[in-house]
Amino acid sequence: VAPLGAAFTLLALVTGSLWGRPMWGAWWVWDARLTSVLVLFLLFVGYIALRASIDDEAKAGRAGAILALVGLINLPIVKFSVDWWNTLHQGESIFRAGGSTLAPVFLIPLAIMGVGYMCAFGALWMVATRAEVWRRRASSLALQAAFS
Amino acid sequence: LTQLHLDAGKYAAFLWPAYAVTAAAFAWMIAATLLRARRWRREVERLEAARPRKGDGAGDGAA
Q1: What ipTM did this prediction achieve?
Q2: CB-based contacts of B60: which residues, under 8 Å, 6+ apart?
Q3: Is there a contact between A3 and B32 (Cβ–Cβ < 8 Å)?
């Protein structure tokens, strides 16, 4: 599932950069929101590399789980970065006290796309989980065949 | 029908690459995920077909 997370995060960074250039006049700025999302992407890459670098599946799983738990700290930082620091990125504009500051003409398409992205991720996640079950089943069958 | 306005004007140079990158990323994610699932499903089917069945007299522990 980590490659999916990495791909979605990279997509956010690249398309955000394409949006930032005409809006902010810069492809990239080291502000808190952008930097914390970049850290999230690097955590995904690090997780993938860590899992791949350890042969023992149980040890790789344990090491990956520890890194994932450490990485969890980054999630509230991503969410609240625009409140905690003075950033070029606009402040909270959707889930905020007093209601969204977005006009419906923007908010409705954004909500539809948000739900669409979540459905797409959910569907891919389920297929990836199923593939992992098949892989473990194949590994188990191969071991049985080797010892029978 | 509402007419589609595809002319993004001065933003076209940023808008269309964003769509292109998104389409490419989704194509990769969908293809990679489905191909991986198919590969392991077929591997399981192959291994299960090759596995000795009970009653064959081999690998079932029958003496």
Answers
A1: 0.83
A2: B52, B53, B54
A3: yes
